[in-house]
Amino acid sequence: MARWRGDTRPAWEGSDRKSRLPADWWRLRQVVLKRCEGRCELVEDGVRCYAEATDVDHILPGDDHSLLNLQGLCKSHHLSKTGREVRAAQLKRKALGKLPEEPQPGIIKGPPQPKERRGF
To answer: Does the residue 115 lie in any domain?
Structure first.
């Protein structure tokens, strides 16, 4: 589903992700946030983010909910990481021929054809 700037719907709308979480997800989430001391665990150029960890992220995509595969991230880093993963999955599906090629809206295919007239 295409999203646009100003769209207030959650990015996960229509996803079955929540139903695939384990029953004790709330407990796992608390353990991860306590382990990272409430601070985002993303490290860029050797520097750890100083923002508050509000989200719990799967390091490797999928349904491995082990504590070794979970990390605390700030909202901004979680959104950007998820966006990269979604784009990579789309490109992979497209390469496998499972994602239809979207026509470019600015491309005009030949000159306009006159409409066929019927009747009088």
So the answer is: no
Burial readout 84-101 (b: 16 or more C-beta within 10 A, e: otherwise): eeeeeeeeeeeeeeeeee
pLDDT in tens, 93-112: 888 776 556 666 666 666 66
Length of the chain: 120
Q: Does any domain span residue 60?
A: yes
Phi/psi of residue 92, nearest 5 degrees: -65, -45
Helices and strands of the chain, counted as H and E runs: 2, 4
Residue 44, in any domain of the structure: yes
Question: Tens digit of pLDDT for each residue in 38-48?
Answer: 999 999 999 99
Give the DSSP H/E element, type plus range, for residue 82.
helix 75-95
Query: 0.85 exceeded by the pTM?
Result: no
Quote the number of domains for the chain: 1
Beta strands in the chain (DSSP E): 43-44, 47-48, 55-58, 70-73
Q: In this structure, is residue 23 part of a structural domain?
A: yes
- Residue 62 belongs to what domain range? 18-95
Largest CA distance in the chain: 80
